[in-house]
Specification:
The chain is an all-alpha fold and 289 residues long. The chain has 2 domains: 57 residues, Orthogonal Bundle (Helix Hairpins), CATH 1.10.287; 208 residues, Four Helix Bundle (Hemerythrin (Met), subunit A). The chain has 8 helices and no strands. Helix 1 packs antiparallel against helix 2. It is elongated, with a radius of gyration of 23 Å. 20% of the residues are buried.
């Protein structure tokens, strides 16, 4: 008996991938010029242009996908492809943060003891940094600048509670969607987005406190580098996740998503739970340990 195959929709040629590549290039080039100080003003312009290109690309590309889905062009295999694609994307993000945490542990477990003269490296200690004290966090830079470590109590702990709460509210929203409780879905999804915005506001406040009161800056030695590198990249992911949540909330208001078909919501939820999990690891390794 012949097997009936579902049609697999293949979209026509699209400008969005090329525009996305251009936007990412402008973002990287602008950030490089900006952070390096080679051309700060030009870096601002190029980075802002990259943001604009990425926003246009995302709205256009996702808009096309939404329209194609609502038109019934996607088969079961197509939905499976979307899930696999999102799974691999999150896996790539896991590897990205694994590399960043690997840098942190490499410094703390290997480099700091080496510089301190451990493991028969007394000559390295004497030649490279005779006054170095093998302790973490490293609060005294090679230039003699004194910094202060960011404690785990206060804003970091509050932000941890905020993100844990946001995972709970998103779970409740997902359950409401599965049971077709639209009002409850909109309420709890909106709460999740507000918690994401709250996290970003508190992190901005934390950065201001670090710069103005603790003397902890991006150029404050290796401790400042790793602190802002890890928390900054995580913050960028929170921004993206919050934008996804707000977009899903707007689509809910428009009547999108059903109990059986809601991959857009599910993908945003996967990403948000991943971001929350990364923060828990980051909170323990950067702030507490």
């Amino acid at each position: 008996m012949p097997v009936k195959c579902q049609p697999y929709y293949v979209p026509s040629q699209s400008p969005w991938p090329l525009m996305g590549a251009l936007g990412l290039f402008l973002l990287a080039a602008g950030a490089g010029l900006w952070v390096s100080g080679l051309a700060t003003f030009a870096g601002h312009i190029v980075f802002s242009l990259g943001v604009l290109v990425m926003v246009v690309m995302l709205f256009g590309w996702f808009g096309n996908v939404i329209q194609e889905s609502k038109s019934g062009l996607y088969s079961t295999q197509m939905h499976r492809s979307f899930r696999l694609g999102m799974s691999w994307f999150i896996f790539s993000e896991v590897m990205f943060f694994a590399a960043l945490f690997g840098v942190l542990f490499y410094i703390r477990i290997l480099v700091v003891p080496w510089l301190g003269g451990a493991s028969n490296n007394a000559m390295t200690h004497a030649v490279l940094w005779p006054n170095f004290v093998p302790d973490w966090p490293m609060l005294l830079t090679p230039g003699g600048t004194k910094t202060t470590a960011m404690g785990w109590f206060g804003l970091p702990l509050i932000n941890t509670l905020v993100l844990i709460s946001s995972s709970f509210t998103l779970y409740v929203a997902h359950r409401a969607l599965l049971h077709n409780r639209r009002n409850s879905l909109a309420l709890w999804l909106g709460c999740t987005a507000l918690l994401g915005i709250t996290f970003l506001v508190l992190q901005t406040w934390e950065y201001s406190h670090a710069y103005q009161e603790l003397g902890l800056k991006l150029d404050s030695g290796i401790y400042g580098n790793t602190f802002f590198l890890l928390t900054g990249f995580h913050g960028a992911h929170v921004i993206l996740g919050t934008l996804l949540l707000v977009t899903m909330w707007l689509r809910v208001q428009r009547g999108d998503f059903t109990q059986a078909q809601h991959f857009g919501f599910q993908a945003a939820a996967w990403y948000w739970h991943f971001v929350d999990l990364v923060w828990l690891v980051l909170f323990m390794t950067v702030y507490v340990l």
